[in-house]
Amino acid sequence: MKPYKLLSPSNQSNCVLFNSPHSGSTYTKKFTKLTDLSLQTLRSSEDLFVDQLFSPVVDFGSFMLSATFPRAFIDLNRDNEELDPLLVNDVTAYKDTLKVSAGLGVIPRVVADQTPIYNHRLSIDEANYRLQSFYFPYHEKLKTLIKKTWNSFKKVILLDCHSMPQSSINLSRRKDPIDVVLGDCFGHSCEHEIVIELKYLLQEAGFRVSLNKPFSGGFITRNYASPSNNIHVVQIEILRSLYSHEKKQTKNSEFLSIQNRLLGAIEQFIKRFEC
Fold first, then answer.
1. In which residue ranges of the chain is pLDDT below 70?
2. Tens digit of pLDDT for each residue in 31-60?
């Protein structure tokens, strides 16, 4: 299985790239045999249909990269050294982060609701197989796209696309309802003008938008951003229940409407920052 799907425009006409690292939905028999969880439970960690939600951006002249494999198998939005010693045998060196401690390292120990994925430990060979065959090739492709775009336009704006369950908003104890969260690592991953313009355009499209709370940006946002070199990254989290039935894991009747509103804002954003 190829680790990524790349949608290419007939002509790259702008410096905006799109990335969907958590929407992969190919659950191989080799993987599902390692767990007693149902497919529905495994998919609770998946950014349902985010790749489909954003895929028409190729018509605006942008590339879009998305994962084919699921987040429960390996998480692209983590450092490759965030291996979980409670899951993987013979881990000699790892980054002991809060995500790893919570079971959400580069190879997750649990799914979104904290249900354990495995009833046994994984070998270091299995961990290395997933990193070498899926994680590194994906990131190499993303690096290639960033380099190609920078060489063409001397500027890159990477929009890292995700979805968030309603439960994550509930846990954040926000009193005001939100539809979209934009993360710029509290001003460190992109020029302020970029994220403020994106926020404004999404609000004009009718979305309730928050900045950095409760999601300020993950590994991809932090790792690839270099505003001083004109490489800017913004993480986008869109409320999953807006366009899907979370429990049924199907699109709802509002999918096309939400997509059209979202793409309208994105198209205006691309025109605003045409490089």
1. 171-174
2. 999 999 999 999 999 999 999 999 999 999
Q: Which contacts qualify for 145-152: CB closer than 8 Å, 24 or more apart?
A: 145/6, 145/17, 145/63, 145/65, 146/17, 146/224, 146/231, 148/12, 149/12, 149/15, 149/17, 149/63, 150/15, 150/229, 150/230, 150/231, 152/12, 152/15
- Return the CATH number at 243: 3.40.630.40
Domain that includes residue 180, residue range: 4-272
Nearest-5° angle of CA 67, CA 245, CA 212? 60
The whole-number pLDDT of residue 167 equals 83
pTM for this entry: 0.96
The per-residue pLDDT for range 62-89, each reduced to its tens digit, is 999 999 999 999 999 999 999 999 999 9
Look at residue 173 in the predicted model and tell me its pLDDT.
66
- Total domains present in the chain: 1
- Residue 162 zone, left/alpha/beta (φ > 0; ψ -120 to 50; rest): beta
